[in-house]
Here is the input.
Amino acid sequence: MPHPIVKVIADQGCQSYLVGCPETRRALLVDPKVGRTKTIQDAAAKFGLTIERVVDTHTHADHLSAGQAFAAAGLDIVMSRHTSCRRKVLRVGDGDGVQVGSLRFQVLEVPGHTPDSIALWGHGLALVGDTLFAGSLARSDFRGASAAQLFDSVTRRLLTLPDETVVFAGHDYRDVLFTTIGHERRTNSALRHADAAAYARAIGDVPGAGNSPEVDHMLALNQSVEPLPELPSAVVAACCAAGPGPTTRASAVTECTVAELRASEPARAAAGRWIDVRDPWEFAEWRIPGTKNLPLSELGFHLAEFTSSDEPFVFSCLGGIRSKTAAKTLAYLGVVDGPISLVGGINAWRDAGAPIERI
Here is the structure.
């Protein structure tokens, strides 16, 4: 079966995920944020997906969950068996399966950031919530958190997954959209400590110290049976531990204008080294001639297709934001050397009178 359909919906550093079965077009929705319900529904429609169930990987302390909005439409909300949430949820534990269409994901209990944290693993990806981030771990100073438990969860549960597993975290604070288990095992400085006790000493977190009044209010609302307003929701706390975060290789990401790229466009496109990272339905409408479509949210399934060469890869999107994220992510993973992002994206390309293909 082809790899799952993945669409990331980002908002203020929070990451929600649509994960669809390519055979049945049924989808999981993971960690939806209040205020983004319409965006999520529109994305599902454009991909031809029907959302079948919702997963909250933990009780969120930094933002409101939109799970209730989908529960009101009759969807199951899946959470850990250890959750303190008082809403009606389908409780799962270690080793249980969460199925959608022909996809089946294994539940991994990964406490530490919260006591009820879970991850989903299967089909080449891991949805890890707030545990393992690119270059760091989650924070462990909320009430009920444990730095030692978090370290054990990551090293004993997540790092035992195959190296090529694509890791999708609950947040992206540094413009690295995803990582892999193998890359974090090799490079994540937080994982270099001898054991959980050493990590806990180094971090020095005091459980509960991170519970500001705003955080406590968010937790209370997310645990309540009362309906949450479907309004734009502020994010009241970051959920990654302080630290150096992800670093890229010496080769920096380069941003080039249309004028700088037009001379080399035919050769790059012919060599398959110009990648359009828009969603498939966007690419189908209009595109730069010869470019190859690899959607941003699904790049992690195509890492083996990036080969070394004297000619760097060029990445483009609609306006230049997603292409820069793609370039930064692949540079962080060490997959490409000197990636180039097209400034202004295809909009700028079209406005400059450069050639465009339309169906």
